[in-house]
Amino acid sequence: MKRLTTLLASTAVAAAALSGTAAAQNDMIIGLITKTDTNPFFVKMKEGAAEKAEEMGVELRTFAGKYDGDNEAQVEAIESLIAAGAAGILITPSDPAGLADTVKAARDAGLLVIALDTPFDPIDAADATFATDNFKAGELIGQWAAATLEDPENAKIATLDLSEAQVTVDVLRNQGFLQGFGIDVKDVNRMYDEDDPRIVGGDVTQGSPDGGRTAMENLLQLDSGINLIHTINEPAAAGAYEALKAFGLEEQVTIVSVDGGCPGVQDVKGGVIGATSMQFPLKMASMGVEAIVEYAKNGTRPETTEGLDFFNTGVTLVTDSPVEGIESITSDEALEQCWG
Amino acid sequence: MSVDTSVEPILSGRGLTKRYGRVTAMDACDFDLYPGEILAVIGDNGAGKSTLIKALSGAVRPDEGEIRLDGKPMSYANPLEAREHGIETVYQTLALSPALSIVDNMFLGREIRAEGFAGKYLRKLDKAAMRRFAREKLSELGLMTIQNIDQAVETLSGGQRQGVAVARACAFGSKVVILDEPTAALGVKESRRVLDLILDVKKRGLPIVLISHNMPHVFEVADRIHVHRLGKRKAVVDPKKHTMSDAVAMMTGAMEAPPEERTDN
Amino acid sequence: MSDANSDDYEKAIHSGGDVASFEERHRAPLERLHNFLHSYPTAAPLMVLAASLVVFGAIADNFFTPFNFSLIIQQVTVIGVLGIAQTLIILTAGIDLSVAAIMVLSSVVMGRLGVTMGLPTGLAILAGFAVGTACGALNGFLVTRFKLPPFIVTLGTWSVFFALNLWYSDAQTVRSQDIDATAPLLKFFGERVGIMGAQFTYGSFLMLGLFGVFWYVLNWTAWGRAVYAIGDDKEAAELAGIRTDRILLSVYAVGGFVCAVAAWIAIGRLGSISPQSFYEGNLDAITAVVIGGTSLFGGRGAIFGTLIGAITVGVFRSGLKLAGVEVLWQEFTVGVLIIVAVAMDQWIRKVSS
After folding, report:
1. Contact (CB, 8 A) for B261 and B237
2. What is the DSSP string of B77-93?
């Protein structure tokens, strides 16, 4: 009931705004919908969007799911933004396929929808996608590892992934890493279908330190000779490192990761993580705000990066042991750009 | 009448009144229980029996009136206080914890703690003493057919459970035991057993208040019968002088008690 | 059932014999098993654990080693301790969905005060304990004072505590290296000792110790008996003279305190303090309790069942991994275990009806 009242009220406000003469720019509303508002990655995104919105004099409304995968909350957020007459929506979809219908309704209502970080399924369900090239992020750390390990031909690799659900981001990072390292990944849309003997196994971590630790312990029980570990993100890497320390194996193992959060970059500096691929959530969101304002002013739609079906917001390798042929920055440089 | 009513009653009530909104559940009701007797309380549904019993056992606080125990005015805030003064009630539901053992149930809420350091600082229970005491009480009441007092109450039959509840009340009730419908849920054989138990308790000198709908049971064990109607005591009758149908008639208002037994004026 | 019983009762009275042994002579094997499981709530979980050990020992390499067992113990330590808190509450016929949130909040308090603000570590730990106890007491207060169902109360406080924890921590992880530098005592329970190829953490010992303590408390103190009585039949307990609300409040508060102890252990295990760890810890704890044979309806179960339950989950995860089974089947198997455990409980409880 309360929701209905709010909806009606905001519809009335929106109608009033639309019927008013010459909508001033500071009446423009932009929505930002993240998966959660707890993950530092999304916190940073919000920060970037808020700064840019303030600078451009538009109103930013933010929404978030209660947990990763909270589709309901995102549907409601889109509906209320449509009702509020927003100019556009920036969204990190929790359920990239499930949200397609609601997004279509928003686009039909004239809103520009930009997916941030996570592409829709299909990707053209949104007007544009601003994201990290997660495959590239994986590939970078894979290439770095291949160049760093003394004997990559006899490496023993474990992957600490996100979940058993084969989530897009998870698959892209995992497959990118393996391909970058020089492994035949078979179906690039599936993890765990490789038969390269160098792979000891994979386990899931939910991207958290407790998951990382337990998964690492179980994999080490499978083969204590593991010497290269791919982790879905840096918290999982930190958990894995604790397990390695407990086994007394931290010296023999190289850990690579993806994200570029500040604690993760600190861990690169502290030698816990060998290399990590940094992404730029702040940039994603701030560019997103710009794109919507641009579109509202003169109808210009954002373009995609050449060769990709989304706009690549870039990814940078962070390591303190740079290798030839792979561009990278040091952890000290990275600390100035990190998030979280 | 075998009960000596010239002595002071052990438990008495005068002018007990309890109102729930506009309903008067208890209307200046009197009550007397004499030492060593079994007093049955009978009354139609809605007559206010249970309010009276709750007032006596401390579960309800009367708005007006006075309850005396051993001649001293009493006011209990809750059943616990009534218990501390020696009034034990066996509720119709028995208030037993089915999954706990017989001995645990007997001591629920008043466990014996071990002596010395373990009891004082670690709050350790003296299980041996509790078992000993429970066994003693059960055999006093002829209930030692239950040999394994560590067995869960839920493995007992209805009659055995009633026995445990009565034994608990007798073990701790130093002044009065109130039994609420003790035979209502039981079969013929088990009722027989419980009635014997009630007589056993009486033999040991404890006065009993017995609330029951079952006239044959009431007439078999009661020394006096308190007839409750419209929120007050209408009469106290001698079961030897009246038939069961008289009692039922008085209870429903179809008949008045003889003047010497009437108490409502 | 009641007919048979009343007969037995009469016969028993007249024969003057032992009721229990008298009844057993007539029992069919299945009924006898039923009775046995009813009297010993940890028997069924123990059998499941034993069977799983045999199966995994046969099919998984590297499984039957002291080291692997000690590793499993380490892996279940945090959930095991949360399981203690959960067991206490479930025994009262309640449930606490907020145990993991209380734990994470307490660990964040310890980390913020001890590492970020640089207070003496002992003080930070005490503050963490205080916060955990207060959170538990709040649950208990809402349950007893406002007569709200524990499920709803703790569903609410789960979110509340989680939000407070993100607010207080700024969603920031306290890193391992920073803890080492300023407050190494926080990691005390992550220290390891090796015994004959096995490797135990102090946290594992503390967990076993806590199980012992709560076994004693539940079985040898009036408070423990009251916990069972309340879960069994709250009204009966009240009438029998137990101050049920007071005991319930204390159960939730003690549960909160145990969660705070789990927080200290968790810091040792993870090395870092992450506000986003153990998001599913509450469910894992409930899983351990249920697989351990404690009835969700309250009043029935044993604390050591929870330890067995937690270890069983650990054994399944480790065994399936070592046997090379894909991850999603671990989830599947644990799910099946839960359903089997609850079905068993229903069956076992039927003895009383």
Report:
1. yes
2. SSHHHHHHTTEEEE-TT
Enumerate domains of chain A plus CATH numbers.
2-131+281-302 (3.40.50.2300), 134-278+315-335 (3.40.50.2300)
Test A238 with C271 for CB contact under 8 angstroms.
yes
Task: Report the predicted TM-score, pTM, of the whole model to 2 decimal places.
Answer: 0.80
Q: Pick from B107, B132, B158: which residue ends a domain?
A: B158
**Do B104 and B218 belong to one domain?**
no
Interface with chain C: mutation pick from A45, A210, A244, highest number of C CBs within 10 Å: A210
Residues in chain B within 8 Å Cβ distance of C300: 99
In order of start, what are the domains of chain C with their CATH numbers? 65-352 (1.10.3470)
Half-sphere exposure of B113 (CA within 13 A, CB side): 16
| Same domain membership, residue B136 and residue B17 | no
CB atoms within 10 A of CB B103: 22
Q: What is the pLDDT along chain C (353 residues), one digit of tens a residue?
A: 344 343 333 343 343 333 333 344 456 788 788 878 887 888 889 999 999 999 998 988 888 888 889 989 999 999 999 999 999 999 999 999 999 999 999 999 999 999 999 999 999 999 999 999 999 999 999 999 999 999 999 999 999 998 898 889 877 788 888 898 999 999 999 988 888 888 899 999 999 999 999 999 999 999 999 999 999 999 889 888 888 999 999 999 999 999 999 999 999 998 889 887 888 889 999 999 999 999 999 999 999 999 999 999 999 988 888 888 877 788 888 899 889 888 888 888 775 44
Question: CA distances (Å), B66 to each of A66, B16, B72, B245, C6, in order?
Answer: 60, 6, 10, 33, 43
> Structural domain of residue B146, as residue ranges?
98-158
Residue C65 φ then ψ, to 5°: -125, 150
Query: Ramachandran region of residue A233, left (φ > 0), alpha (ψ -120 to 50) or beta?
Result: beta
Closest CA to C230 of C134, C348, C88: C88
The verdict on residue B164 lying in a domain is no
Nearest Cβ partner for B95 among C6, C222, C239: C239
Same domain (yes/no): B32, B135: no
Are B113 and B67 in the same domain? no
Give the chain C residue nearest B147 (alpha carbons): C18
B120 touches chain C (CB under 8 A): no
Question: Any idea what the CATH number is for the domain that residue B191 is in?
Answer: 3.40.50.300
**Contact with chain C for residue B192, Cβ under 8 A:** no
Sheet holding B23-33, edge to edge: B23-33, B11-20, B64-69, B72-74
* Interatomic CA distance for residues C259 and C101, integer angstroms: 9
Cis geometry, peptide bond prior to residue C150 (ω within 30 degrees of 0): no
Q: Which residues sit opposite A329 in a β-bridge? A: A318
Same domain, B185 and B131: no
CA torsion sign for B138, B141, B147, B150 is negative
